[in-house]
Amino acid sequence: MVRRQIPKPAEIFELMKFKKLELDPKKRRLESALTIEDLRRIAKRRTPAAAFDYTDGAAEGEISMTRSVQAFEDIEFHPSILNDVSHVDTTTQILGGSSSMPFGIAPTGFTRLMQTEGEIAGASAAGAAGIPFTLSTLGTTAIEDVKAANPYGRNWFQLYVMREREVSYGLVERAAEAGFDSLFFTVDTPVGGARLRDSRNGFSIPPQLSAKTVLNAIPRPWWWWDFLTTAKLEFASLSETGGTVGELINSAMDPTIDFDDLATIRKMWPGKFAVKGVQTLDDAKRLADLGVDAIVLSNHGGRQLDRAPVPFELLPSVAREVGDDVEIILDTGIRNGADIVASLALGADFTLIGRAYLYGLMAGGREGVDRTIEILRDQIERTMKLLQVSTIAELEPGHVTQLSRFTRADRASIEDLGR
Question: Where is the FMN hydroxy acid dehydrogenase domain positioned along the sequence (predicted)?
C-alpha cells in the first residue's frame, strides 16, 4: 500500500524552477524554434505573402520540390554500436579549403526582399560559423560588400551566363579580385521556370502595391518599414529591376549557353571551379572527364523544371561512377541535419542549404540565420552520435538505406496500367 505524506513547502519550492523571462521578442521567438520547420512557420507569420511564397514555392505543381524533401524522409539509418562518440568532429574539406560543418549557404536571388539584412546576414553568420557563403548573380548585395561582411571566411560566387557576356565576365573578374575562392557555373537556367505562386501573387521587383498586398501588409508593418527605410535594392548584374521575377530572368539569361561558354569562364577563373545544376549521370561523367573541381547535384530547389530528377536519389550512382574523380556537392530538399548526414553517407562531399537559410533570415535577420546554423549543427552532431561515428570520414553507404515508396507489386500494377 502506498504511504502518503503532506509535502513540506521547502520541498515544493525546490521542484519549482521558473524559466527566466526573455524580454527581447526576437530572441524569444528564435529560442522557441527547435527545427527548420519552426523557423519556416515564424517566417510565414512575419513576411508578406508574395515575398514568403517566392522563397517557399517552386515551379508549376511543385512536384520536384515535394519529391526532393520526401526523399530525405524515405530513408532508414543503420547505427553502429559500442563506439566512443563522446566527441564528434564535423569539420570537412571542400574545394581546397576547410569548413567547420559539412554544409554551406547556397546562392539565393533577391535576398533582401525576404528580409532587409539579406546577404550581409548570411555572409556574416557563415563567417562566424566557419562555413562557406555563396553569393548569387541575382543577389541584392554587391560582391565587395559581401567580402567586407565576411572578410576572413570563405566566399563563393554563383554565375549565370547572361545575354550580355561582358556583364558575366565583369562579375567573374570582380569576384576574383575580391578574393572569392570558388566559382559555381550554373547550367540549369536557360530560361526561368514557371513559378505559379509568384504569378498568382503578382510578385514583382520592386514590389508593386495593390489592394491585396496592402491588406496582407497590415499585420506586418515591420517588413515594410525595413524595406522603405533601408538602402535601395541593388543587384549584382541587373541594371533594370521592373517586372516579375520570371520576366527579369528571361530577359537576362541566355538560352544559347553551351560548353564553349563553360570553357571560356573556366579559363578566366583563377580558383576552384564547380558546375551547379547537374541532373544526370551522363552529364556528371562528362564534367568529370573535363576535370572540373566539383559538380553540384541540384534541381534548383524544384524552381526550374518540374518533375526533374531528385538529387538525393541520383547521388549514389554518381558517387559510384565519378566520386573518385570529382567532388560532389548536393542541394535541394535539405530541412534537417540528418538529411546532411545521409547525403554524406551516400557519397556527397558537401551540401548546400537555401530555403533553410532564408527561413531563418525571414524569422530574425542575422540572428535567425545563426539559429538556422545552430539547429542544423545540433542535428548533425546528434545524428552522428546516434549512428556512433565520430568523424565525417566514418560515414559510409551502409549507414543508410533509401526506402522505396512502392512495393514491386505496386510498380508492376502501375506498369500494367501504362501498357
Answer: 28-405
